[in-house]
Structures are given as C-alpha cells and as structure tokens.
Amino acid sequence: MKKFIKNSILFILLLLIVGEFVVRFTHAVSDIPRRTIDNTGIQKYIINQTGYWKGGDHKWKINDLGWPGDLPTSFDNLITIIGDSYIENFMNPNECHQGPLLKKRMSDYNFMEAGRSGVSFIEAMEISKHLDTLQPVQTLIYVNDNDFYESITEIKKMRDITQINLEKNQIIYGEMKSPGLKKVLYNWKLLYYFYNRYPINFSNKNKENEIKKPDFDKVLKLKDKISELFKFIKINYNTSNKTLVFHPRTNKYFIKLAEEHGFKTIVLDSSKDNKSWTFDYDSHWTCYGHEQVANQVTIGLIEYLKGKGH
Amino acid sequence: MLFNSIEFFIFLPIVFTIYWLIGSKRIKQQNLLIAIASYVFYGWWDWRFLFLILFSSLVDYTIGLKLKSEDKPSKRKALLWVSICVNLGFLGFFKYYNFFVDSLVDSFTFFGRELSINTLNIILPVGISFYTFQTLSYTIDVYNKKLEPTKDFLAFMAFVSFFPQLVAGPIERATNLLPQFHVKREFVYKDAVDGLRQALWGLFKKVVIADNCATYANMIFNNQEDYSGSTLLMGAFFFAFQIYGDFSGYSDIAIGISRLFGFNLKRNFAFPYFSRDIAEFWRRWHISLSTWFRDYLYIPLGGSRGGTKMKVRNTFIIFIVSGFWHGANWTFVVWGALNAIYFLPLLLLNKNRVNTNLVAEGKYLPTIREVFQMATTFFITLIAWIFFRADNVTNAFVYIKDMFTSSLFIKPEIFPLTILGLVTFFAFIEWLGRSGEYAIEKIDFMKRPVRWCFYFLLVVLIFSFTGEQQEFIYFQF
C-alpha cells in the first residue's frame, strides 16, 4: 500500500507539472492581468504586463497608465475612450480596439482607451474625472443597461465595483475581490484551467448576486433612482465634453435620460447588419463588430466635433 | 453518479481510503462500506429507486435460502418462478409497460378498432436491466444447485448493488462475484495499478472517443434528411465508435475500479471490431450479456442441439430477446433480428466457430483476407447499428436507403479531421494491444518514464477533448 500511495503521489505531482506546462504552452487559459487600486480609488491594471488570450494568437499589453492597449503618440487633440470589457477587449488584437480603429477613421485626433471589465457608469465618470487632466476634446463612454443598475448600491450592492450610495450622496470605491485566490489562480495556470472548466457551483450565492435585467415595469420603478444618478453626475462631473455610446438594444429610457441631462449620445445599431457583431461563444464584439462600432461612432463624433468648431 | 463526473472523482478516493483503512481482516465491515457506498452512488441519481434494489435483494436472498431448505421439485420450481416474476415484473413494468400499451393500441388501430388505454409517466430506473439479470442469475444458479445460497445478507446486498458495475455492468454471475464477498480481499499493488490503468483507458474511450463521436453521430442522425450518402455512412461510423467507446469504456472503468477494491469482474469486451465474422463479433461484444442469454435462455431452449428448425428458432429468440433487452422500441427488435440473420448462415453451415483464435496472432499486420473479413464484419455491424440508433424503424430504413445513393461517393459534408485522427489513434492502440484483456494491459514491458508519458498523454487528451458531459448510453438499458 505504501508503494501505491508513494507512486500515486509522485504520479499526481508529475502530472501537475506536465499539466501546467501543457496549459501554458497551448494557451489553454487566458492570461489575466493583475489589478491594482490607485490612490484615487480606481481599479486598473499593474503596468507593463503582457499575456495571451485563449483562442487568439495576439498578445494583450497593459500600457504605462495601467490600461490595456497602446498609448497615443501625442495627447494633442485627444479623445478618451472609457468602457468595460468591450473596451478592454482582450479577446481581439490591438488593431481591433476602438482607439486604433477610430484613429484610422479620424487621423487628426489621438485616441486613448481606459477599459476594464466590470466598470459601472459612475466608475466611468470617476475615471473620466482623472483623464480630464489630459484635457481631452471629447470623452466617449461606452455603456449598456447594466452599467446604470450596477452604479447604484440601492439597486444592488457590489463590493468590487465603484458605486454610489444615493441616500448619502457618497461614492463607494470598489475593493479587490479575493486578491489572494486570484494571485494563486493567475500564477497556477492549471488550477485556473480547472477553475474555468469545472466551475464550483455556488448556485444560491450566484443567484443572489446576479443582476437580472429588469423588464420595462421594473425600469419604471427604478427610474427615480437612475434619474437621481444622472442628477448627481450632472452636479459633480463635467459632462459638457462627454458622449455616451450606447450598445445596441439599450433601453431607450436611459438614452432619453442621458440626453435630458446634457450628454451627447451615439446609439449603436446592429439590427441592419446581417453579420453578427459578436463571438458565437461570447457576447463581446469580434473584430468585425468593433469595426462597425467604430464606423457608427465616427459618424456621430464628427457631427459633434463640427458643432464644437473642430 | 457518473464515472466521468467531479462527484465521482471525490467519492472514489474517499471510499477507497476508508475501505483499506478498515483492513482486509474485517470483511463484514468492508462489505458494509461497499453496500453503503453503492447505495450512495445509486441514490445520487434518484434515492427513491434504492427501495427497488433493496426489495429485489431481499426477495432473491430469501428465495435463495428457501431453495436450499426445500427438496420438493414443484415447490422449488414455484420459488424460482416467484423470483423470475418479481424481477421480470419490475423490469417489465418500468421498462416495457408503455411500449406494450402503445403497441396494443397501434395494433387495434391497424385493424380498424379504437382502444383507449393511457400510458403512464414512468421513470426508468437506471441500470434495472443489469441488476435484475444479476440477481436472477443468483436464484437460477441456486435452483440448479450450481451455487450454495448465501446466509450473509450484507454480502448479498453488496453483491447486488456493487457500485462499479451496478448501473451498466458487466452483468456478473453470482458464481463469480458473490464468493469474492465472503473471502479476504488483499491489497495487491500490481492489481491496483492494473486497475487504475484499465480505468484510465476506459475513461479515455468514454470521454475522448465516445463523447466526441456522439457529437457528430447525433448531428447526422438527428438531421439525416439533410446529408449525402457519404455523410450518413460517416454518421453510422461515428455511432459505431460512440457505442463501443461508451460501453466498453464503462466496462473498463468498472473492472478497473473493482480491482482497486480487490475484486475481479468478468471481461465484457474483447476487441469486437477486429472480428472476422459475426459469430466472432458476438463472442467479443458485451460478453457478460451474451453468455447470460446463452446459459439461461439459449441452452435451456435446446441450444443448437436440435434440428435446423430448432436452431433457427432458438437463434432468433436469443437475438430478438437480446435486442429487446436493450430497450422498449421496435428498432432494437429489428437490430436483434438482423444480427440473427447475419449469424444463422454461419450456424447452419457449422462455421460459427471458425474464428476462435486471435486475429493475426503474433503478427503486426493482418493478411489481406483478414482485412477483408474484418472490414465486411464491421460494415454489416455498422448497418445493424443504424437500427439501434434510429428513433424508429422507418427512419432507419430511410437512412439506409439515402445512404446507398450516388452521393455515397462524394466528399462528406462532415469530415472532422481531429476526431477521425483520435479514432485512428484509438484503433491503432487497440490493435497493438489486442492480445491483452484490454488494449494497454501489456504496456508494462516499457520502462516507467515511457509508460508514464503515455499515461500523461491520455490524461491530457481526456482534459483537452472533454466534450459536453454525456451520460453513458447503456444507462438507459
């Protein structure tokens, strides 16, 4: 029995090493960059990291400011782009990011992206406050329905996302979620592979944390809260050079509310396109999807910039 | 609980550790652990059906003891019939009730009469066909005085519910397995390693070969009207490997795990796709079921001893009943009948025992004649599998009709190179290891680093090609 146990342990240990090697070599899991929280409470990435995305040949890169993608060569005539995982866009190569795509279409301007998965609308506004020090001529904030719900603690409290408590008029900055576990998972790729492949099912817990997309009736009930959110933003942030880019099929109520509170809006529309903008296995945009988004954003943006005399 | 599930990967080491911690001297405690573990294993699926196993165990245990004390042949026969009726009664109700009702209603409709009998919403207890046959073999063997009935109910419970083979076999004979519950089981390093190796190979067959072939077989069979003849042939090919990988994989895992606990189960598959005729195929496919029917049905019916009529009748009976055992659908009956038609010429010409040795024994390659024989046997088996897989007999005939058209010679619409590569690799390893109990049994001659590298390769393939977790096909039987 001793021999059996000894050999079994040895076999498992060697198997773990072989497995780790195979997972790293074949990029069976995506490399996820490590995050940090800067002194302003914004969660971003530790600078100068690189890695592979599963299923892609490209490498993602974190720039000197802690955001994915390349920094522009100049900050003159700057347009900043803020958003969640759609802007972070690890799944596509750099040339399929909104920054480079818009630069191709509007060569007189420079574009800088600040994307991180999970960014809420209020968090995007917080990021924009800091990026405003670079004096951009315009800021594009890409949003969808959930970004509004996830901004407000009274709708759903989420510890790892920057939110606002509307009762106290207080910004609550996100905390790092399970940093210890993440550190282990990021370094031990095989474990991360199993973690992804065979997720531990905390079914009740997940149900509790899940934000369901409310139906229209619920939206009406929540409209006061969302309206309060916009009022808060109007008072506390500079919205004059902010354009909200709404994902296709965003609730029209949010678009109307944004326009009423002085935001410029660009509403993306994928319904006339026969080809899908998203991956088969994932709701994120493909390179083709990003190109179409960039085309539509360019049209809207040029109009606004003309109005500003640019 | 499925062998290819996370739960089982946690369950097995726990049971294994406790089992050997109890120690081989305490047989009763070990048997108790096996019985409890087996009930947990089965109850994981649906605890309500545990009562069925318990009841079946109680009935056969009691009848076994009564048969021992009873000398009067008529009473002994009556006891045997009680066991047969109870066991086949459960099986008939859960598995065949709706089928018989539907068939009765259909036949009345055919003759222009309306009959209104409602079918029931019955859940088929997993593995009922397997443990029913196992307990039946006990009573019949006790009745025939081939086996002494056990007085140890715990051992009997453990025998009936033994978790490695409870839900999909091999169907163990009481004469082989039950005595093993009465004797000391020693931990033998070589056996345990061999068991793990066989289980690993079984898992590879199931997860890599069967589940991946299943994806394409399902795609083609479920949309058969959309595909060319060559793709339909490909679909039948994928199903042939799906069912073989699935079922023989389960058997390998079951046998391998049993060895970890010091038990030896019967071999269930012996490389059937390398058979040179259909008789050889049936000596190599689902051996535990074929021999069960041979011993408890074919031979009592007179076997092949009578005249031609008797031979034909008995052959049809055994194959049709065997087909029907697989499921309550006419497709299985036709599948059985078709195999009887394949088999009969060999039996009548007395050529059913021509190929009893190993194909190309001691050689690397078969002769051209052997290749032709194996290809022919595989092809006719493939045709029979179409009936086995199809939803109904009409669909099966349409499938075959659509397959044998001029489109049989065009490039298939579905031609997954990776899966075909894996099947080729699998067939190659099976060919190399065909003289063993299972394909990689004789890998021991290699040096440990080489051997372990091969195991690592299997594990990596298992994790890399894990498709959607699929139930074992034979669970439904």
From TrEMBL, chain A:
Q: Which SUPFAM superfamilies match?
A: SGNH hydrolase (SSF52266)
Q: Which domain of life is it from?
A: Bacteria
| Protein name, as recorded | SGNH/GDSL hydrolase family protein
From TrEMBL, chain B:
Q: GO MF annotations for this entry?
A: acyltransferase activity
Q: What is its main location?
A: membrane
EC class (word): transferase
Keyword annotations of the record: Acyltransferase, Cell membrane, Membrane, Transferase, Transmembrane, Transmembrane helix
Record-listed E.C. numbers: 2.3.-.-
- A Pfam family this chain is assigned to: MBOAT
Subcellular localization: Cell membrane
InterPro entries named among the record's database cross-references: Ac/AlaTfrase_AlgI/DltB, AlgI, MB_O-acyltransferase, MBOAT_fam
Topology of the protein relative to the lipid bilayer: Multi-pass membrane protein
Keyword Protein biosynthesis applies: no
Transmembrane intervals: 6-22, 51-67, 79-97, 117-133, 227-245, 332-350, 371-388, 408-429, 450-467
Q: Which family does it belong to?
A: Belongs to the membrane-bound acyltransferase family.
- Supply the name of the protein: MBOAT family O-acyltransferase
